[in-house]
Amino acid sequence: MATSSPPSVLLRHTKPFAGNPAAVCVLDGPDWPDPAWMQRVAAELNLSETAFVRPLPTGGEADWGLRWFTPATEVNLCGHATLATVHALRSDELLGEGWVRLATRSGVLLARPEPDGSITLDFPANPHHPVPTPPGLAEALGCPVSETFDTGALADLMALLPDEKSVRTLAPNLAAVAELPTRGVIVTAPADDPSAGYQFVSRFFGPASGIPEDPVTGSAHTALAPYWGKLLGTTRLTGYQASARGGLVVCEVTGERVLLSGSAVTVLEGSLSPSAAS
C-alpha cells in the first residue's frame, strides 16, 4: 500500500507557515487500512488533522473516500484537511475537471479546484440553536460569555464573547475546557472594524479531541457563517480566525450549504516507511 503525506496549509494563504497545517496520506489500496493504524499515523504526525484519501470505483456516488483524524480521534468533518486533500490530489495530477466528490462521515462533500489556484468547498451548513450556558464555561474560558449555541452535527459549543479583543486575548484553562460536555468550543465576536476585510473573529479550542487550539477551522465556519450571515443580513462574508497562525475564511451561505474558499501550499512531501505502512 503506497502512501504519501504532504502537509498543506489552509485558508486564503499562498505562502508556507501560515494558516492551518494538515497532513494528507494518499492511499492506493482498494479498502481502508485498519483505523487503529490510521490513528497511530495521525498521532505520530501530531498535526491538528491528518486526512486519509483513497480512490473509489468509477460509477459510484463519489470519486474518493476521505477520513480525518486528530492525534486523538477520528472526526466527522474537517475543512482545512479537505482543502489540503484536494490540493494534494491536484498537485499529483489525480483530478479531472469540475467538482470532486468525496465520500465522508458527513456524507458526500463537493470540492472544486479553481483556475486561480484556490479551492472551493461545498459543505453542509450546521444550524445553531441557543442553549443554556454550561456551568463552568465562563470560568474555563476566563471571560464572560454573552450567549451559547449548539452546532448540530458538528457537536461543538459556540460561545459569543463581548468583543473582538476578548476573542484575541483569550487564554483559557484548557484542562477545564476539556471537561466540558462538548467536542470543542468555538468562541466568536463581531469585528471591531469591518473595513479590515472580515466581519467576525473566532477561535477554536478542542483539547478533548487532542487539539488544544486549532489555527484555522473550516468546519467551524459551517456554523459561524450562517450565524453571522443572519445577524448581518448577508450571505457572503469573511471571518478571521485569530489564532497565533491566523487565517481568513471566505464564506458563502447558500440555503442549507456553506461554500468555503481557500488556498493551500505544500511544504513537505514524503512516503511512510514500509514498516509504518504494514
List keywords for this structure.
2 domains, Diaminopimelate Epimerase, Chain A, domain 1, alpha+beta, 7 helices, 17-stranded mixed β-sheet, single chain, 20% helix, 278 residues
3D architecture notes:
This protein has seven helices and 17 strands. The chain has two domains: 8-113, Diaminopimelate Epimerase, Chain A, domain 1 (Roll); 129-255, Diaminopimelate Epimerase, Chain A, domain 1, CATH 3.10.310. The protein has a 17-stranded mixed sheet that branches. It is of the alpha+beta class and 278 residues long.
Cα-to-Cα separation, first versus last residue: 8 Å
Query: Which word captures the global form?
Result: globular
H-E order: EEHEEEHEEEEHEEHHEEEHEEEH
Unreliable stretches, pLDDT < 50, 5 or more residues? 1-13
What would CATH call the class of the largest domain? Answer: Alpha Beta
- DSSP strand (E) fraction? 25-35%
Radius of gyration (CA) equals 18 Å
Sketch the major β-sheet. 17 strands, mixed
Structure class: alpha+beta
| CATH-defined fold name of the largest domain | Diaminopimelate Epimerase, Chain A, domain 1
Short description:
The chain has helices spanning 35-45, 79-91, 137-141, 164-168, 174-178, 221-232, 274-277, and strands spanning 8-10, 20-26, 50-55, 64-69, 74-75, 100-104, 107-113, 119-124, 129-130, 147-150, 157-160, 185-190, 200-206, 211-214, 236-241, 247-254, 257-262. With 278 residues, it is of the alpha+beta class.
